[in-house]
TrEMBL record:
It holds the Pfam family MatE. Multidrug efflux pump. The chain crosses the membrane at residues 57-80, 92-114, 134-154. Belongs to the multi antimicrobial extrusion (MATE) (TC 2.A.66.1) family. One of its GO terms (molecular function) is xenobiotic transmembrane transporter activity. Keywords: Membrane, Transmembrane, Transmembrane helix, Transport. One of its GO terms (cellular component) is plasma membrane. This is Probable multidrug resistance protein NorM. InterPro entries: MATE_fam, MATE_MdtK.
Amino acid sequence: MRHKLFKNRSFYTAMLSIALPIALQNLISSSLNMVDTIMIGQLGKTEIAAVGLANQYFFLFTLLLFGTNSGLSIFISQFWGKEDIKNIRRVLGISIISGGIISILFTIGGFFLPEFIMGIFSADPEVIDTGVKYLRIVSLSYTITAISFSFSFASRSVRQAFVPMIVSAISLGTNTLNYI
C-alpha cells in the first residue's frame, strides 16, 4: 500500500495544486499583518498596543468564520465531486448568510460596544481610548471579510485555490502601496 501511495503522481499533482496556493495565501496574509504592524508601530507604543488588543476581537471573529467555512467547505467539496452545482450554490449561500450573521454581531459589538470590548483586554485608559477609535473603524469591514472568507473557502473546495491567493496578493500590494 505504501509503495502505491508514493507512486501516485496524479494525487500529488492535485494535492500540490491546492495546497501550495493555500500555503502561499497564508504567507501573504501574514505579510499583510506584518505591513500593518510596521505602519502602526511607527505611530507609537500606545497605538500598537491598542491595535494589537483590538485585533484579539478580530481574531475571535475570524476563528468563528474559519470554523464555519471549514465545515461548509467539506460539503462543497463533496458536491463538487458529484458535480452537484445546485447544492454547491446552496451551501455557499448558507456560508454567506452564516458569515453575515456572525459579522453583523461582531460589527455591532465593535461599533457600539468598543469600550467594553477593549476593557476586556486592557485597563490602560489611553490604550482603551485609542483602541475604541480603531475598533469602530475596522469593525465596518467585518461583513466584507465574512463574504471574502465564504468565497475563498468555496474556491478552494472546487480546486480553484489560485484565485483567493491572487486576491490576497493584490490586497498585500495595495496595503504596501498605502504604506509607501
